[in-house]
Amino acid sequence: MIKVQGLSKAYQVAKRSSGVKQAMKALFKREYKIVEALNDISFTIEPGEIVGYIGPNGAGKSTTIKVMSGILVPDHGTCTVMGYTPWKDRVNYVKHIGVVFGQRSQLWWDVPVMDSFDLLRDIYKVPEDEYRSTLALLTETLELEEILQMPVRQLSLGQRMRCEIAASLLHSPSVLFLDEPTIGLDAVSKIAVRRFIRRINEEKGVTIILTTHDMNDIEALANRIILIGKGKLLYDGSLSAIRNRFGTGKTITVVYSHHNERLQVEGAIVESWSPERAVLSVDTSQVVISEVLIRLSEQVELLDVTIDTLPIEDMIVQLYKEHQI
Amino acid sequence: MKAYVSVFRLRLTNGMQYRTAALAGVATQFFWGFIIIMVFEAFYSGAATELPISLKQLITYVWLQQAFLAFVMLWFRDNELFQLITTGNIAYELCRPSGIYGLWFAKLLAQRLASALLRCFPILLVALFLPEPYRMPLPIDPAAFLLFLFALLFGLLMIVSLSMLMYISVFVTLSPAGSLLMFGVIGEFLAGMVIPVPLMPEWLQRIVYVLPFRWTADFPFRVYSGHITKEEALIGIGIQLVWLLVLVAVGKMAMAKALRNVVVNGG
Questions:
Q1: What DSSP state is assigned to residue A105?
Q2: By the 8 A CB rule, do A59 and A230 touch?
Q3: Quick check: helix, strand or coil at residue A82?
Q4: What average pLDDT does the segment A193-197 reach?
Q5: CA A267, A272, A274: angle at the middle one, nearest 5?
Q6: Whether the predicted pLDDT of B217 surpasses 80
Q7: Model confidence over B128-150: pLDDT tens digits?
Q8: Do A99 and B95 touch (CB under 8 A)?
Q9: Cβ of B262 under 8 Å from any chain A Cβ?
Q10: pTM of the model
Q11: Residue of B nearest to A123 (CA)
């Protein structure tokens, strides 16, 4: 479906420190810095996948999305989506894709949402009956009924984002690029958006590439993640593989009746300790959890025990650390 | 094509809703019209020699200028398009399966049309019934009027294609202020919006005649008043068409080049 091979793109950025003197200098001689946004990125995505594309700010996520949607031309490398090279065959290609840029708007500011939708129908040449049924589906699943007749400028962010997503799907694309679709949304709207993304993937088999900083989005949606940092591909694989890699680390929080000595448990590291409460970290590939609990109960009178797996955020941070980004 | 019509219709119906703005516009235009006519009246009464255009024709020129201001002024701008480029929202336009040039052209055309439709009728109607010497005369004959309509229409298309160049320049400069000022001041002067072209000195007229600007304003207005004969008007409309084709071709080329190097601003 999507095949990216050796993609590279560099931006030329004018470099200037602040201050009047520097500004004067820049009038005559300007220094440029080359920023490598993408450096030899390769991956393949199969039809029907949901891929989480993650990385810190400035890693090159949005640049990749823009190259894949035909907006930017890369310096090197190839990219084929459904047999098209996006930037060469732009006009024919974009009929098959939908794009949502969470930070931008595609709806006309001062007209009702419905007018923007009708305009998109004409731009994409969607047949009327097909348009009606798609719109009905979108209206129902994204709960747009009441807001379709309102001008965009009067919508809340959450309402607008739902309309933006609907607008990107009116022409029934086979590939959907979502660039931070949940940015700035409250928990309820986020869940609604996620449920919707899941649904169109399952029912219509839409291939989805999703960038986000919200790890809950990834956890709820993506089976596979691609991690990039400073323009380089760092990890490409399933979420469960990462889980297995970092998930062997468990945290045990114990509350016990007063005990004045510092705990010493074989096979576990005591992270913090007080006369009532202790946090221990355990590597389950070295020692079995029940073993640790038995040893604990020999020393203190346990009142409460909580066992946590490393949250996915921390796993990603670990990955960042491993690659030093 | 349907997409262009759709953009056009949407902008037109939307633009027609700004009635208060139009009313204020009409008042301003009358004010300006009177002042300019008074100035020219004084100038004509003091003139020792025969002037190249009669006062009556000049008054027609002024009223048409005021009525169709939205068709002829270059500084009439769409901030949405400027913002699209400078903030990077152009990203969305770039993933549409239709040419951006056409969509923007339709949008700009509709805006000018909506603005002019709201303003021109009250101005023309009142100007036709004003007391002398301010009254605007009727066209000299139906044929001249028909030619005027065509000249005005092609002039409108020309001005939209000229202003497209201004929008495209923002891809490079990232700020509309410079292009707007240059185009606005120089273009409008050369279109005869400040001093009617027939009153310009000989050497300046020669420059004005080789540039596209006068075809958007000066030419249609003089066709109406009969200062340009019908034979000349027919040839003129032909020249307008050639200019239109050249401007659209240049605009499309410049747009394609700008889009190849486009930088989507703001992450």
A1: -
A2: yes
A3: coil
A4: 89
A5: 115
A6: yes
A7: 888 887 888 888 888 889 999 99
A8: yes
A9: yes
A10: 0.81
A11: B3
B86–chain A nearest CA distance, Å: 12
CB contact under 8 A, B95 and A95: no
Cβ burial, residue A148 (10 Å; 0-12/13-18/19+): middle
Characterize the bridge pairing of strands A224-229 and A232-238: antiparallel
The domain that holds A71 is classified in CATH as 3.40.50.300
Which residue from B257, B29, B2, B27 is spatially nearest to A120, judged by alpha carbons?
B2
Residues A299 and A163 in one domain: no
Q: What is the structure's pLDDT at A325?
A: 61
Does residue B266 lie within any of the structural domains? Answer: no
Contact A95 B80 (CB under 8 A): no
Site of tokens 């021109």: B120
Q: Which residue out of A38, A66, A126, A170 would a mutagenesis test of the B interface target, given it has the greatest number of B Cβ atoms within 10 Å?
A: A66
Q: Provide the ipTM.
A: 0.78
User: Which member of B5, B91, B103 has the closest CB to residue A101?
Assistant: B91
Rounded to an integer, what distance in angstroms lies between the CA atom of residue B34 and that of residue A237? 75
Q: Looking at beta carbons, which residues of chain A come within 8 Å of B256?
A: none
Any idea how long chain B is? 267
A104 CA: distance to closest CA in chain B (Å): 6
| A15 is a domain residue | no
Alpha helices per DSSP H over A187-288: 187-204, 215-221, 239-246
| Type of residue at A210 | L
**Going by DSSP bridges, is the β-strand pair A76-81/A2-15 parallel, antiparallel, or unpaired?**
antiparallel
Question: What type of residue sits at position B72?
Answer: V
Q: Are A99 and B92 in contact (CB under 8 A)?
A: yes
| Complete DSSP assignment for B64-96 | HHHHTHHHH-S----HHHHHHHHHSTHHHHHTS
C-alpha neighbours within 13 Å on the C-beta side of residue A252: 25
Hey, are the CB atoms on A72 and B264 less than 8 Å from each other?
Answer: yes
- Quote the number of domains for chain A: 2
B232-254, pLDDT tens digit by residue? 889 999 999 999 999 999 999 99
In a domain, residue A5? The reply is: no
Q: How many Cβ pairs within 8 Å bridge chains A and B? A: 68
The two structure tokens encoding residue A278:
């202790």
Task: Flag whether A125 is in a domain.
Answer: yes
Do A210 and A260 lie in a common domain?
no
Examine residue A64 and state whether it is found in any structural domain, yes or no. Answer: yes
Q: Which residue has the tokens 């009047």?
A: A20
